């Protein structure tokens, strides 16, 4: 899958930098700096923004974004149960996502598959606006067993989403290995559906840097504040991914 000239799903994973600033001007400054620095992909975590969950306040930020010719812009409103900052009624969350999908600046939106009443319908409506969808599931308590994680990826794919993402919490390195195994298994079975497999925290660090080997299409790296445990600074991530890529080409 190619978006804005970036191939997602093969080769080096894209580096996505979350923006988690609280204030509008800080959000816009951060995005401007990332775009100017050649960032491949930006995720705006709108649940961190002080104006959320007011759709009009969110629109003010989206309307102020710079032109992003080469940078993919992902809109995410993460709910409390999925590791977000706010407890918001599902109807309002869905409305916020659909409103964001109408913005010219937004290329992708994140849909929390198992928190949404009718995820396939939302995916269809977002596609109707010409935007891509990442179907996601986050578990900040544990790492489910391998079959359950694989089933989650399948169910997310069945919504019609363009990319499927699973992020879980490990107790130890073995849990991280489970995520790598499930990610590889899905990637080999469905190579045309980009998958993102993340084991959060220090124990899961390996899942963030070995995407090219195990099939994970996007890795999330920090620029200042991070949005999840275990995110590596973006400048360091770039060096690591380039090194892995060169070794794989030898």
Topology, element by element:
Layout: E1 2-3, E2 6-7, E3 14-19, H1 24-36, E4 41-45, H2 55-63, E5 72-76, H3 90-101, E6 108-112, H4 119-128, E7 132-139, H5 146-157, E8 163-168, H6 173-189, E9 195-199, H7 205-209, H8 211-214, E10 218-222, E11 232-233, H9 234-249
Parallel strand pairs: 3-4, 3-10, 4-5, 5-6, 6-7, 7-8, 8-9, 10-11
Antiparallel strand pairs: 1-2
Query: What general form does the structure show?
Result: globular
Largest β sheet strand count, sense and barrel closure: 9 strands, parallel
Fraction of residues in H or I helices: 25-40%
Q: Looking across the biggest beta sheet, what order are the strands in?
A: 9-8-7-6-5-4-3-10-11
Number of strands: 11
Span of the ends, CA to CA? 25 Å
Percent range for β-strand residues: 15-25%
- Total number of helical segments? 9
Report the order of strands and helices: EEEHEHEHEHEHEHEHHEEH
Judged by helices, strands and strand pairing, the structural class is alpha/beta
- Residue runs with pLDDT of under 50 for 5 or more positions: none
- Estimate the mean pLDDT confidence: 94
Gyration radius over CA? 17 Å
């Amino acid at each position: 899958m190619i978006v804005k000239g970036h191939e997602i799903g093969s080769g080096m994973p894209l580096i996505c930098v979350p923006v988690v600033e609280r204030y509008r001007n800080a959000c816009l400054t951060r995005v401007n700096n990332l775009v100017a620095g050649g960032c491949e992909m930006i995720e705006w975590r709108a649940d961190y923004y002080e104006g959320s969950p007011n759709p009009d306040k969110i629109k003010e930020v989206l309307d102020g974004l710079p032109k992003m010719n080469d940078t993919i812009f992902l809109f995410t409103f993460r709910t409390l149960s999925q590791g977000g900052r706010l407890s918001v009624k599902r109807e309002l969350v869905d409305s916020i996502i659909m409103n964001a999908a109408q913005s010219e600046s937004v290329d992708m939106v994140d849909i929390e598959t198992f928190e949404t009443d009718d995820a396939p319908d939302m995916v269809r409506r977002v596609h109707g606006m010409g935007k891509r969808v990442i179907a996601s599931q986050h578990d900040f308590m544990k790492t489910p067993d391998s079959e359950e994680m694989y089933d989650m990826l399948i169910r997310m794919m069945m919504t019609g989403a363009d990319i499927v993402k699973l992020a879980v919490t490990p107790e130890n390195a073995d849990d991280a290995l489970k995520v790598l195994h499930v990610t590889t298994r899905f990637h080999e079975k469905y190579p045309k559906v980009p998958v993102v497999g993340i084991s959060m925290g220090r124990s899961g660090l390996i899942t963030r840097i070995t995407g090219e080997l195990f099939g994970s299409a996007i890795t999330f790296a920090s620029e200042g504040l991070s949005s999840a445990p275990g995110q590596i600074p973006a400048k360091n991530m770039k060096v690591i991914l380039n090194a892995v890529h060169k070794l794989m080409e030898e």
